[in-house]
Amino acid sequence: MAEAKRGFFPPPGSFEEKFIRAGGHGGQNVNKVATVVQLRFSPGLAGLAGAALERLQALAGAKLTADGDILIIAGEHRTQEQNRRAARTRLSELLERALRPPKHRKPTKPSYGARQRRLESKKRRSDIKRNRRAADY
After folding, report:
1. pTM of the predicted model, to two decimals?
2. Residues 6 or more apart from 15 whose CB is under 8 A from it?
């Protein structure tokens, strides 16, 4: 089996692959051959840390099932092997993104000059709007 080339890939017992028939156009090949792969990944069996597990669930979005599994469906290629490789690559990329902790944002504040420019532009805009008003006679 060709595994994803780069990065983290889950341990063998934490995912299963099932092949199903593809729908849509394609003629006899689509009707006879089960080339679409459904890759079901169970994060609980992979031994992920708490923060990484939360990030993975947030990143999975619609791929997350009610059971807490991640379901990836790949059917863009004509062969099982290419679809298997595509599904495993997608799972590997998702796991890499989840395992990478977010960068810490250093809070910054605007400089004195930036604050002055902002207030000046607000004053200019206010003057324009004030001059549009009807005069009180």
Report:
1. 0.65
2. 39, 40, 41, 42, 91
